[in-house]
Write a structure and sequence with these properties.
By secondary structure, this protein is mainly alpha-helical. It has 14 helices and 2 strands. Helix 2 runs parallel beside helix 4 and helix 4 packs antiparallel against helix 5. The protein is globular, with a radius of gyration of 19 Å.
């Protein structure tokens, strides 16, 4: 669809040529941010941003899984000792069937497995044999409407609550994008459609009742919640989404949150991240600019 390739966001005048908005990754800024985040490794009482009770998913907003995904966005790779140690730590939470738990006693959840795989993918571990098992588990649990939902949630309350969970589906697609064989498979097409159809209905859906409303439309980074920026970023990796008018509308929705220089304004960062210069409330973010640059390159070519 040609419309999805239009310059839907203001191009501003950031680039040296005046009319083109360019995004330049500054390795020094990334390294400084990685260092600052690494200094907080023990803040929650456990290893690698985990809590003293062993949870890698709590406290909500600043935990192991979220820190791993942010470090990946900052460019940390498997060659780095911190990344290697973090990956090995997360793999200790893998169950025998390939799924991931978030505490030593917790159950198997696709949202946790998706977040773990997305973080491992960002760090360069998507082809690790242990990741293979996790991807197999995730794919095997796809719901009949194309998305993913919590297998422990009771069925029968309503058709909407019996549906897949958009937030969980977004985590799954974020993970699957790191495996080209799966990204282009029959698995992802129905999942992409499940999220695009949610853009149309916007109604609360799935056992966790994720809807599309005011909170969804706020620009958030890091990605703690189901939100517009995360939705557009993940779907931009899928050709079927980029060719769809519903994705084009979501992409254009980002333009409501840019300043006069074409920079996205981060309106709703979790308070645990506001000490970092890429996640300050109601301000632009150089890291968000980098991520937005990637989206634009995939959408506009």
């Amino acid at each position: 669809m040609a419309a999805a390739r239009l310059a839907l966001l203001p191009r501003g005048n950031l680039g040296p040529q005046g009319g083109t908005l360019t995004y330049v990754t500054d390795p020094r800024a990334n390294a400084k941010a990685v260092e600052a985040l690494n200094r907080r490794q023990d803040e929650n009482g456990g290893e690698f941003w985990s809590r003293a009770d062993g949870s890698i998913h709590a406290p909500i907003g600043f935990c192991t899984l979220l820190a791993m995904n942010v470090l990946g966005d900052l460019g940390l790779s498997a060659r780095d000792p911190v990344a290697a140690g973090l990956a090995e730590f997360v793999f200790t939470y893998q169950n025998d069937d390939g799924s991931f738990r978030y505490t030593p006693q917790s159950t198997r959840l696709p949202c946790i497995t998706g977040q773990a795989l997305a973080g491992l993918g960002r760090l360069g571990f998507a082809r690790d044999p242990r990741s293979d098992a996790a991807f197999d588990w995730l794919v095997s649990g796809q719901w009949n409407d194309g998305g993913w939902r919590c297998p422990t949630a009771k069925l029968g309350k309503s058709a909407a609550s019996d549906a897949s969970n958009p937030g969980t589906t977004l985590f799954a697609l974020d993970a699957l994008r790191f495996r080209p064989d799966l990204r282009r498979s029959d698995v992802t097409g129905p999942a992409v459609e499940a999220l695009l159809s949610h853009w149309e209905t916007r109604a609360p859906r799935g056992p966790c009742e994720f809807g599309i409303g005011t909170r969804f439309r706020r620009i958030e980074y890091p990605f703690v919640h189901y939100n517009l920026f995360y939705y557009v970023l993940v779907l931009s990796y899928y050709e079927a989404a980029r060719a769809d008018a519903r994705f084009a509308a979501a992409y254009q929705g980002l333009s409501e949150h840019v300043d006069d220089r074409g920079r996205l304004i981060v309106a709703n960062p979790h308070r645990s991240w506001r000490q970092h210069d890429f996640a300050r409330a109601n301000q632009p973010s150089w890291l968000v600019d980098e991520l937005l640059g990637g989206i634009r390159a995939r959408v506009e070519g």
